[in-house]
Structure formats: C-alpha cells, structure tokens
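Hi support team,

I submitted a single chain yesterday and got back a structure, but I'm not sure I'm reading the token output correctly. Could someone confirm the output below corresponds to the sequence I sent? I've pasted both exactly as they appear in my results page.

Thanks,
R.
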Amino acid sequence: MSQEIYISGIGIAPEVLAAVVSRSVEEIEGIASVGVKDLATNLVSMLSARSTAAAPAVETEVVDDQLAITVHLVVFFGYPFKKLAEVVREAVVHAIDAQVGVSVARVDVCIDGLVFPKE
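Hi R., thanks for writing in. Yes, this is the structure output for that exact sequence:
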C-alpha cells in the first residue's frame, strides 16, 4: 500500500479512497470506466518484464484539512461533458461524506478517453 493520507485525525490509504470514489462513479450513466483500461497496455505488461505503469484513476491530496480529488474517466460519446462532470462531482462528495466523513475541497474531473458506439 502507498503512503497513507492523514486527515481529521485518521490515516487512510490512497487505494481505499480510490475505491470509495470509483464505486460512487462507475455506475453513473455515461461512464465507461474509472481510469483508462487499455487492453493492449495491460497485455504488454503481463507478457513482458517491461512495466507500463498507468496513471492512477483517482488522485487525492489534503488541502486545508479537506480532500482535493482528481478522477480520471473514460466516457461514452453522446453524454455532455459538463453535465457528466457535475454528476460525478456530486456523487464523489456524497460518497466521501458518507463513508469517510471528511469535507471535500474540490473534485476535478479529467476525461481521458471517449468510447464511440459500434456502428
């Protein structure tokens, strides 16, 4: 596990925060995946000694005793980005409040990929 994040007197592993955030976002209509799940990159890393470390799907840091969260997403074509980002922000803030009990300073949404429908 990575270095714990200390906030409001508790230490939380970044992976735990990422799990809470991912779970709250993955069921939102229009979200293809939390983080970039590139099959080709995964196969290369499994079949070779070369490590192709992907960027984390969720990044967290403490700012003035509040969490600042960045969520990386792949979304489906046809869902307006701004509206989707608002829904994601609401879901993340609610999940962190309910599960962790700390305030969220901001939620930055990064749309890193777009999935087009098959024709």
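A quick pointer for reading it: The first helix runs from residue 14 to 25. Let us know if anything else looks off.

Best,
Support desk
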